[in-house]
Design brief:
about 160 residues, alpha+beta, 2 domains, 4-stranded antiparallel sheet, about 50% helix
């Protein structure tokens, strides 16, 4: 019979709870908010990744942004998977290599633009994501041109 992690050792982590006790042992475990069901588990993580996750829990997201760039590919994938699972929207230059990352970034940028964030950087990144979606056949030709027209109308 496995031991359950006591609720006082769980901290909010987006839409999930993070086991601090496991994190201190270099393990990453995310639970649902209501009960004890595990949603994501990674047995061993690096000290660097552990420090970044602890900073996110403390609300020091922007202080560790540069540290994320120094993570190796495996740690970056683990981090982004955990952030996706917890629905924490942090853009640290996620690689647009997987279909899920592309679609996730597309939806975030589209929502930002619809809410009025029409800054130059946002529009430029949205254009890049649209082009990537089209190249990877995630957007039809007609949808691609609709998105391009939307961008032109905003500019």
């Amino acid at each position: 019979m496995s031991k359950s992690v006591k609720p006082e050792f769980r901290h909010d982590f987006g839409r999930r709870k993070l086991s601090i006790k496991s994190l201190n042992k270099n393990k990453l475990t995310l639970y649902d908010r209501e009960g004890g069901r595990i949603h994501y588990r990674m047995e061993m993580i690096s000290d660097d990744l552990k420090a970044i996750i602890k900073a996110i829990v403390r609300g020091q997201i922007h202080e560790v942004e540069e540290a994320v760039d120094l993570l190796d590919d495996i740690d970056r994938k683990i981090l982004f998977k955990a952030l996706d699972e917890a629905q924490i929207d942090i853009d640290w230059g996620r690689p647009l290599d997987s279909k899920n990352n592309i679609i996730h970034r597309f939806n975030i940028l589209k929502d930002e633009i619809m809410l009025g964030n029409t800054g130059e950087d946002t529009l430029r990144e949205f254009k890049e994501v649209i082009d990537t979606c089209f190249e990877k056949k995630l957007l039809s030709k007609s949808d691609y041109y609709k998105m391009k027209d939307l961008l032109v109308s905003i500019i």
